[in-house]
What does this fold into?
Amino acid sequence: QVQLVESGGGLVQTGDSLRLACAASGGTFSRYVVGWYRQAPGKEREFVAAISWNGANSNYGDSVKGRFTISRDNDKNTVYLQMNSLKPEDTGVYYCAQEDALGTWGLWGQGTQVTVTA
It folds into this structure.
């Protein structure tokens, strides 16, 4: 059974960068859309970015456009989220998710914490 494992979170300052990784174990997600979401305390889960199965297409939430970049390496079964110019409002738990055959986010990772201090 495929599992998604996020890594790369941490505590950084405003303006810093982080790169998150989402690795698939027990299988492959090379044929699926993969996305990133985040959830701040007391707020609903928010869409961050998604990437097509071959990396040719991607889209972003308005709050991260121009600062975050999603990419993937299917040979390594890994999707990345490069986050630049981080702001305190980027703080939250970041989750990766795989789209299933029905077009829903059917598989989620456990999340990685990102904290950005002012």
Notes: DSSP finds no helices and eleven strands in the chain. The longest strand covers residues 18-25.
